[in-house]
Amino acid sequence: GGVLRMFKGLSFLSSIDNLYDSVFELNQDRHLNLPVMKDSLTNPVIASQFELKNQILPIASLISPINGFFKYVDPKSPISGGYSRGPISYMVTDDLVVTPITSMKVISHLEEMKVPLNDVEDRFISIGVKEGLSLLKASLTTTSALTNGLSLYIIEQFMHEQRSQSTHKD
Predict the structure, then answer these.
(1) DSSP character for 114?
(2) One Pfam family name from the record (predicted)?
(3) What is the spatial distance between Cα 22 and Cα 99, in angstroms, rounded to a whole number?
(4) How is the chain split into domains, by residue range?
(5) What are the angstrom distances between the C-alpha of 1 and each of 4, 18, 96?
(6) Tens of pLDDT along 28-75?
(7) Rounded CA gap, 35 and 117, in Å?
(8) CA of residue 63 relative to chain centroid, distance
(9) Angstrom distance (rounded) from CA 124 to CA 122
(10) What pTM value is reported for the model?
(11) Among 36, 72, 120, 132, which residue is least crowded by beta carbons within 10 Å?
C-alpha cells in the first residue's frame, strides 16, 4: 500500500494495482470495521523500531504513545476483530479485483465472460503461506494471478478429493 500510494496506484503491475484499487473503492462505513482500516491498508506506516535515520522511501513511521492499551482478540472468537464489518463474502477475479459479493453480481460477471452457469463449480480452498507466496509471485508477473498462482494447489486438491471418493466407493 505505501509504495503503491507513492505511485498513485499505478505500479504497472495490474494485479497489484487492482488489489489496491479494490481496497480504495470499498465503502468503509458498510464493509470495514473502522474508518482507519482503509487508511492502514492503503497508506501503511513503518513500525518505529524499523525506521531508518535516512529513509529512502517517504513512508511515515508509527509514532507510538508512551502509554497505550491494546485489546487481544482471538482469531477464532465470534467477536469481530478484523478489517471487515461482520461476515462478508467477496468475489476475487483472476486479475485480483476484489468486490463485495452478491448473487446478482456473480451471475452478471459470468454472463459478461460468457460462461454458462452449468460450467461453474463452487470451490473452497485454504490459503496458507505456500499458496500466499505463490499468489504474490503470480501477481507480480501476470494478470492471471489466481489461475497461475493457485492452479497447482486446486489440481492437487481435486486429485486428493478424487482419491478419497474412489477409496470410499470400494
Answers:
(1) T
(2) DUF674
(3) 7
(4) 2-87, 122-170
(5) 5, 12, 15
(6) 666 776 667 777 777 777 776 666 666 666 677 776 555 455 566 666
(7) 37
(8) 27
(9) 7
(10) 0.53
(11) 72
* Under 8 Å between Cβ of 107 and 117: yes
Residue 106 pLDDT greater than 80, yes or no: yes
Write out the three cell numbers for 125. 480452498
* Percent of residues, the chain, with pLDDT higher than 70: 65
pLDDT of 167 higher than 70: yes
Nearest to 81 by CA among 31, 33, 28, 41: 33
pLDDT score at 153 = 86
Amino acid present at 161 = E
Is the pLDDT score of 114 beyond 70?
A: yes
Cell of 31: 464493509
Compute CA distances 14 → 11, 61, 67, 140, 152, whole Å.
7, 27, 42, 9, 22
Mean pLDDT of the residues in the chain:
75
Tell me the CA distances in angstroms from 101 to 7, 35, 57, 137, 160, one per residue in order.
Answer: 28, 20, 36, 26, 29
DSSP code string of 38-79: HHHHHS--B-GGG--TT-SS---B----SS-------TTSSS
Helices 129-141 and 145-169, packing angle to 10 deg = 140
